[in-house]
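Assess this today:

___
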Amino acid sequence: MKRFSVFAMLLTVTALVLAACAPAATPTAAPEPTAMPKPTATPEPAPMDIVDTAVADGRFTTLVAAVTAAGLVDTLKSEGPFTVFAPTDDAFAKLPAGTLDELLKPENKQALTDILLYHVVSGKVMAADVSGLTSATTVLGKDVAIKVDMGNVYINDAKVIITDIETSNGVIHVIDTVLLPPADESAAPGTIVDIAAADERFSTLVAAVTAAGLVDTLKGEGPFTVFAPTNDAFAVLPAGTLDSLLLPENKQALTDILLYHVVPGKVMAADVVGLSSAPTALGKDITITIKDGKVFLNDTTQVIITDIEASNGVIHVIDAVLLPPQ
């Protein structure tokens, strides 16, 4: 029994010695953390050209339709750069009724093109530059006036409501009114009838002149001075009066009324204010008075616009229809 104990003790000592002499265990290195991938930067979208920018913005559908009808899409998508004063849909809606429909007809393409080119200036003119100018030459070759009033910028009579919409080929400034190019001063003015027919404010007068058979007369050599009532002036006649006058059986009464608005000769505003009366083509006089610097015919009818010159006379606009004395 004692020999077994000695043998067991020897085994234990031997095991301890072997353990002490064994090489130390190599520690396992901790795994390196996996690097997170860096986020990929989203590139800024490249700006679109003037046409694509207008198409993408729902406020310019009418302008885009006009540019398309005028065949100017490729021009305004080209390198440029251009500065475009862009009327909104609401701006086009302010045009006289029927004007836009007429302009979009193929036979009026040149007139539409001229109007659109009057909204374009060569070069990229930012708002900071616009406000330092008094005028700018358009691609049409005619200048627009630029003014600053009460902190607002106006192009002719159109207010700039949004500025500096940058595009790949220029810049857009948004305006609240369509710009209409000035008439060609070198062109001879039309006759009294032509001028009235081209102005929506006189559509009722033109219809009356036609019904009375006076078109050829007022397109004649003249000269004539016409005191022209606006559509609003005709609208204040008693209900049914105009419809009655336009009936064939009342042609003479209508003719008499219209001739009472015509004075033989070309009488400019400077001459009118020096008169107290004037003989009309009807053979009956109208009286002329000045009140607070304003000209009145027959005491109550006011002259509101003067000296619209025609090839055969002059038009002065009045706010009421003149009715001849009985």
Notes: The first helix runs from residue 2 to 21. The two ends are 164 Å apart (CA to CA). The longest strand covers residues 158-167. Residues 96 and 199 are 9 Å apart (CA to CA).
